[in-house]
Design brief:
By secondary structure, this protein is mainly α. It has helices spanning 7-37, 41-44, 49-77, 85-108, 121-137. It has one domain. The radius of gyration is 23 Å and the shape is elongated.
Length: 162
């Protein structure tokens, strides 16, 4: 069994995941703007209003979850967080992938005016994020904090009296 991770490892992982999600979903937003600018029928025509909505939801939720991951990482770095830090971390990472992926896949393949089967991933991701937030908010034992290195400054010497 591998040793438990320190809170610093969780913090770094979520800050990296958060910034990656922000970059990815902001890029998706730029693609959506380009589809508007190019007047792409596959995206703008009335029969595809569901697609437009689902892609917009994927962009918005993905970007927001990126920011939530950054906040989670900074929270953990400051020594806050519940006893179930590992579980909260996994749930938040899973939710960050499933929630926007469900919206995106639901808009990719449409059944008339209904989203595709991929949309069923979105509520699963939402529940994972909700559970992660709940676990992070619960009080618990302090997470493992990385030790700080000892100071390299020498202590001042006392003068001896004779």
């Amino acid at each position: 069994m591998p040793p438990p991770e320190t809170s610093g490892a969780y913090a770094r992982r979520h800050v990296r995941l958060g910034w990656a999600a922000v970059a990815l979903f902001m890029a998706l937003g730029l693609v959506l703007e380009a589809l508007h600018a190019l007047k792409t029928g596959w995206y703008l025509e009335e029969p595809y209003a569901t697609r437009r909505l689902m892609f917009t939801l994927a962009h918005a939720h993905g970007t927001l979850l990126g920011l939530v991951n950054i906040a989670f990482g900074l929270t953990v770095e400051r020594g806050l967080g519940g006893r179930s830090l590992a579980t909260a971390s996994r749930l938040l990472a899973v939710g960050t992938v499933l929630l926007p992926a469900g919206f995106f896949l639901g808009g990719l393949y449409l059944y008339g005016s209904d989203p595709g089967m991929g949309a069923f991933l979105a509520p699963v991701g939402a529940v994972a994020v909700l559970l992660a937030a709940t676990l992070a908010a619960l009080p618990g034992a302090a997470p493992t904090v990385e030790p700080t290195p000892p100071s390299t400054e020498a202590a001042p010497k006392k003068k001896r009296r004779r």
